[in-house]
Design brief:
InterPro entries: FAD-bd, FAD/NAD-bd_sf, PheA/TfdB_FAD_monoxygenase. The chain is α+β, with helices and mostly antiparallel strands and about 400 residues long. The chain is about 35% helix and about 30% strand. The protein is globular. The two termini are about 35 Å apart. Bound molecules: flavin-adenine dinucleotide (FAD).
């Protein structure tokens, strides 16, 4: 089996892995990124970037390329209850120039990060190969093996980074337990319809007949729709056939009922998403650190996952450079990342849980409380605090420019 040696072996070329690889390479470290997908035609989830992610991508130097490739600025988030706007969150009130949500296909984000990574001579991108095992020296992780059979390759590294998403194989290979949090008690049916002349310029949650619906513009010419259902409720509804399902969705979002009737013609037009939250019990062990969805996973409420993945990369960057410069890859050093980050992640999980309950819960009590609570929130300083937390996170995260040499 052939082998190579590097400073950092990043497993997973998603938003977390590529952002981190770029930072490490620009700090002078040798980096290898191993990505399972052969091309950019991957299954992506999540198209909304919060202002905090936009600011960090700007600091990374990739935002201009992203903007050149497309995307829509969305100005507000609205909760619309039976035609009445209960909550109206105005992103334009945030500080410029990051005073909007950016809706863009995640492919554009990945392509722009990939392009920036390709320009670094000390960064080696291996696409189309999966990591299937880790290399240990006693209890210490010292590398990873990707590919299989005659094509298997060993990559030895000062430190391995698991950035391989919610179902992280590296996490499993390292024997790190993962706890699901049942914060989101809904399933989501995910689909797109043509926008035609009906772009909304915002993210909206509609509460009308039946289950709530999330809707936003999807670049370049679609509307992304997410129909939330009680957990495990889809099979019962789907058994009654496409006519019934289509009718239920149309009732749930009356302004788009005709487009749904026209464009949803088969159950295969709908994707049922496995939506869950959770965290790994530890985010580091000797020679290994977990970031992004591999360390902590989030449901779609409040569009937090991409923000957090990029913030993780920026936060772990100085920790990893210190570890490299002192040649110390011990868990005590690498866990500094978890110490800094876990409290913020716990706050995001708690906030998402409250948002989910406030917007999606059903029943006469919830229906009576919702307008009062929404009004109260809109007129108190809490509104500003919550908006800032959703947009930027619990505490400021910034790129450590002083570590960059390229
Ligand atoms: C329905 C839904 C909607 C969402 N909407 C939003 C949203 O609007 N905004 C938002 O911010 N977040 C959203 N999210 C969350 C967001 O998609 C994730 O949090 C984010 O993609 C995490 O980035 P990551 O880099 O950690 O992991 P991922 O994006 O999952 O990337 C992991 C990468 O690792 C690769 N990989 C996996 N296993 C291996 C292996 N063994 N070897 C090599 N490579 C491997 C994968 O191919 C992938 O490219 C949503 C999530 C869901 C479920």
């Amino acid at each position: 089996m052939t082998s190579m040696t590097t400073d950092f072996c990043v497993v997973g070329g998603g938003p977390a892995g590529l952002s981190l690889a770029l930072l490490l390479a620009r700090s002078g470290a040798d980096v290898v990124v191993i990505e399972r997908a052969r091309s950019f035609d991957r299954e992506y989830r999540g198209e909304i970037l919060q202002p905090g992610a936009l600011e960090l991508l700007d600091q990374l130097g990739v935002l201009p390329e992203i903007r050149r490739r497309g995307g829509y600025e969305l100005e507000r988030f609205q909760l619309v209850d039976h035609g009445r706007v209960l909550m109206d969150v105005d992103y334009r009130s945030l500080r410029k120039p990051y005073n909007f949500l950016l809706s863009l296909p995640q492919r554009i984000l990945i392509e722009a990060l990939h392009l920036a990574c390709s320009a670094q001579e000390n960064l080696h991108l291996i696409d189309g190969s999966s990591v299937n095992s880790l290399i240990f020296d006693e209890d210490r992780v010292v590398g990873a093996v990707h590919g299989s059979g005659d094509g298997a390759r060993q990559v030895y590294a000062h430190c391995v980074v698991a950035a391989d998403g919610r179902y992280s194989k590296v996490r499993r290979l390292a024997g790190i337990e993962y706890d699901r949090i049942e914060a989101f008690e809904h399933d989501v049916l995910w689909f797109k319809i043509p926008a035609d002349e009906r772009r909304v310029h915002e993210v909206r949650v509609y509460r009308d007949a039946g289950s709530p619906v999330l809707l936003h513009d999807s670049y370049p010419d679609r509307l992304q729709v997410g129909w939330t259902l009680p957990h495990k409720g889809y099979r019962r509804i789907a058994e009654r056939g496409i006519e019934h399902v289509r009718g239920e969705i149309a009732k749930a979002v009356p302004p788009y009922a005709d487009a749904i009737r026209e464009h949803i013609t088969s159950l295969t037009d709908l994707t049922l998403l496995d939506v869950f939250s959770g965290t790994a019990r530890q985010w580091a062990r000797d020679g290994l650190v977990l970031i992004g969805d591999a360390a902590h996973t989030h449901g779609p409420i409040g569009a937090q996952g991409l923000n957090l993945a990029i913030q993780d990369a920026v936060t772990v960057h100085p920790v990893l450079m210190r570890s490299l410069n002192t040649r110390n890859d011990g868990v005590a050093v690498l866990s500094e990342f978890e110490r800094q980050r876990r409290p913020s992640i716990q706050k995001v999980h708690a906030l998402q849980s409250r948002q989910g309950k406030a917007m999606l819960s059903a029943g006469p009590v919830a229906d009576a409380i919702r307008p009062v609570a929404a009004k109260l929130l809109s007129y108190t300083p809490l509104y500003r605090k919550v908006l800032n937390q959703i947009a930027y996170g619990d505490r400021p995260v910034r790129v450590h420019y002083e570590l960059l040499v390229a």
